[in-house]
Specification:
CATH topology of the largest domain: TIM Barrel
Strand order of the largest sheet: 7-8-9-10-11-12-13-14
Strand content: 15-25%
Number of helices: 11
CATH architecture of the largest domain: Alpha-Beta Barrel
CATH class of the largest domain: Alpha Beta
Structural class: alpha/beta
């Protein structure tokens, strides 16, 4: 349930209303002070709250029922776009933010070299996997803590915030020390115990859609994080599993405008995992920006044929620089920058 307050309602009156709702009905209240209106979101069992009682309050303009099960991630709950500050970068503005780097951190020299090159091409964050959840138990599983340390060193040299994937709640202490944006991969999108732990910290979370999950299920996973108090969630469409075998996954471009209409959270796209082949990354990136994505996450490797993971879908630094140059006119055409 959402209460739209009358224009000009002072903050003490909003706080008084929230205190009354909590004490009288046991619901959680989340006041949102927007640019044009103030709303109060009610989370919990609102079935016993008479709407007419709320409408009689001096400060209440109207009462809105929210039918969707996700409340905190709902745009009705928070009409303005959420902005997330990560170092010098603000996610959710007119700037399309590009995250780039290797699928797996392989050595200190490798990640440092790639970090410098992607930054010079326009990337604003560095991605790299240290803990790698792989389909095969025989595949490279990552350098773990050593890999995170190499990422941190690359950040110290380049200034790029670090994005890396967590696979287990036991890794959280390490990630809080070394990582600026904690990524939840597709296989862990519904690892609810992990999501609850991430809700208790204050660190941006990049939440990838599961390859067999609906948009509503993605939003409910975001709700797990936000319900714990962490509102800094970035959603990421990375392709879903369909009958088509020409690409690794099928990139759901329609998910971008659907998510932008349903939620206030930033929406990123991972064209590398969606395509599975480097040759398709550029056209999918263009489509994602044209559809309204707030950012991209792209795999870049200095020597893709010899990469320890996902070399087939990784761009060379030179191809990444060319990609960035090709994306800037697309962004400009819809009033954005990159």
């Amino acid at each position: 349930m959402i209460l739209v307050l009358k224009q000009g309602t002072p903050k003490p009156a909003v706080e008084s209303l929230c205190d009354w709702l909590t004490s009288a009905y046991g619901v959680q209240t989340s006041p949102i002070f927007g640019s044009s209106m103030t709303i109060v979101g009610l989370v919990g069992d609102t079935s016993n709250i008479p709407i007419e009682t709320l409408e009689l309050q001096d400060t209440v303009e109207r009462v809105m029922k929210v039918q969707e099960p996700y409340k905190r991630a709902n745009r009705k709950f928070h009409p303005d776009n959420t902005l997330i500050q990560i170092g010098d970068v603000t996610v959710g503005t007119d700037q399309v933010c590009v995250i780039a780097g290797p699928c797996s951190v392989e050595s200190e020299e490798q990640v440092a070299g790639i970090a410098a090159l992607v930054k010079s091409a326009g990337a604003v964050m560095l991605r790299g996997g240290a803990f790698k959840p792989r389909s095969s138990p025989y595949a490279f599983q990552g350098l773990k803590a050593e890999g995170l340390m190499y990422m941190k060193k690359a950040r110290q040299v380049t200034g790029l915030p670090v994005v890396s994937e967590i696979t287990n709640p036991s890794q959280l202490e390490l990630f809080l020390e070394f990582v600026d944006v904690i990524q939840v991969g597709t296989r862990n999108m519904q690892n609810f115990e992990l999501l609850k732990e991430l809700g208790r910290i204050r660190r941006p979370i990049l939440l990838k859609r599961g390859f067999a999950n609906t948009i509503d299920e993605l939003l409910m996973s975001a709700e797990y994080i936000m319900n714990g108090g962490n509102s800094e969630v970035i959603l990421c469409e990375r392709g879903i599993r369909t009958f088509e075998t020409s690409t690794r996954n099928t990139l759901d471009i329609s998910a971008i405008p659907v998510l932008k209409s349903r939620t206030h959270l930033p929406v990123f796209v991972d064209p590398s995992h969606a395509a599975g082949y480097a040759v398709y990354v550029e056209p999918l990136s263009r489509a994602a920006i044209a559809a309204g994505a707030d950012g991209l996450i792209i795999e870049v490797h200095n020597d893709p044929p010899r990469a320890l993971s996902d070399g087939q879908q990784s761009l060379t630094p030179e191809a990444f620089a060319a990609l960035m140059n090709g994306l800037r006119p697309i962004a400009a055409a819809i009033g954005r920058t990159i």
